Predict the structure.
Amino acid sequence: MRILLYNPDNGVTRNFMPHLWMFLLQALTPSGHEVLLIDGNAQPMDEAGIAQYVREHNIGLVGIGAMTRMIAKAYRMADAIRAVGVPVVMGGPHVTEEADEALGRNGGPRHADAVALGEADETWPKIVEDAARGQLKDLYAPVDEFGQERKPSLQQYPAIPWDKIDLNQFNLVPKMATRMLQRIGEGWGTFRIIPMESGRGCPYGCEFCTVTGFFGDSIRFRTNESVVNELLRLKARARSEGGQIAVFFIDDNFAINIKRTKSLLRDIIAAGAQVHWVAQISANLLREEELVDLIAASGGKWVFIGMESIDPANLASVSKGFNKPGEYAAVLERLAQRNVYAITSFIFGMDNDTPGVAERTLQEIRTWQPGLPIFGLLTPLPATPLYKKLEAAGRLTRPKHWQEFIPFEMAHTPLKMTIAEAHAEVKSGWASSYSAEAIANAVDSLKHKPLGYRINIFIARMCFRGIYFPQMGPVAWVKLIYQNRRTISSLVREGFTTWRGRPSVLPPSRPSEAELV
Ligand code: B12
Ligand code: SF4
């Protein structure tokens, strides 16, 4: 049987990284079946396009995975596939919580022939065999022989064949530049960010988060050897194609067990398996100098920190009181000393937020080491404690917000400001952090760092800006480059000066107000 695994586009950003579930399920598919992958973020497709694809490629089963924000698109695509007679199985965090919705058991239309609940590592082979026999069941749950929920162990993790998989759709280097860039240094003909997990689960149970409910509070890890071997395979692939690879450790809290994380990082270093990597680590786990030393030595470049708020009352209200805003600056300093930077994530619209929260947060951020701040709105995802709390209090304004997903739009009313005010705060956070002036300031404030780090921060800021401000397509990029021309020319001139062996005497770039339009 030929199987298609499809991930719908998120409608906001192009894909900077593929989704791990597709590669994992592909690796777990019983032999004798062929698996094709389409990520809608890299290969945009509409309903007619996917229907035509499944017919032309003689697909016998389609698997669709989606987060809540992509579920409406996922359902539309599933409907189109089922309309041409091909069965659809859906999985992932949304349908796990809303299986009745996907199966049309709550009065709405049916979108999926089957739903895989929770982690599907062990149920997927069964689903494939049932589909091949034409006997798909409605629901597949990860349970043991006694019907008790069973979380898969990661000790026998499959070897994802990264060395053989066709990753053409995930090359971040524009096609026209590939040939030329292949010859630069060790080669930049390809640049890919690859998702990798070293463990699953997070016990913290923050109110707005799906993870503790979905993956459970028991944490499971892969063996160090399995992670190291995967890194070595990726490195070999990048070398063989004259390109670069970076890894996103998608663990929810990469340092949840500090002892184990340090042991993994030591093994990565010992095996020479370092690649540049990004990981999510909560601020409270970054207190230890030795851990941060190992992060830097093993290739860690960016750490994603869910700071959420600088207000302890807000943090307490979402059960994230373990975050201590008073230590954010020291954590960022500790990272920056090792040339590791932070993606700092904030949520506005929390119950203690009032108008002006963006400016108050930005004032703090400006005193910290520059990184990549991102801003979102408190969103009640299905089945989270937050959703249940707001539903019980009658505060949900769009209880089924995912049926008509709108980016950066609240689905409940905050306590101390209006929805419109919360939206304005998020807009202000993004506008102030990603204006050409703010980007120039961030780059300038790193003057004491090597040029490479400043270029890194600059490129990252330009890309992150696209999370909020639509900048898909060449025209948007040309405009953006024009707006940031001062910083670009300053970095380029400094690069030439350094290259020709002269000390840089260039003044810092600070565009005037007029140039920022
Ligand atoms: C990596 C990641 C991202 C990446 C993007 C995804 C990517 N390219 O990989 C980035 C960092 C960009 C991101 C962003 C966001 N993310 Co995110 N992200 C994750 C994270 C940390 C890991 C995903 C992953 O690969 N997990 C490991 C794989 C193996 O697990 P899995 O995907 O769940 O797949 C398993 C099962 O679900 C199932 N399965 C999944 N799909 C399918 C399909 C079929 C057919 C079958 C049979 C089974 C199946 O089988 C798999 C194996 O067991 C998860 C948390 C987590 N630990 O999963 C959050 C998570 C998925 N993200 C979440 C959210 C909310 C977001 C944001 C909306 C946050 C925000 N406010 O901006 C944004 C939106 C991004 C966008 N523009 O669309 C939520 C989603 C909850 C929900 N109900 O939708 C999660 C669960 C975290 C949370 N806080 O609750 N994210
Ligand atoms: S620490 Fe992160 S992953 Fe864990 S429950 Fe809180 S938000 Fe979710």
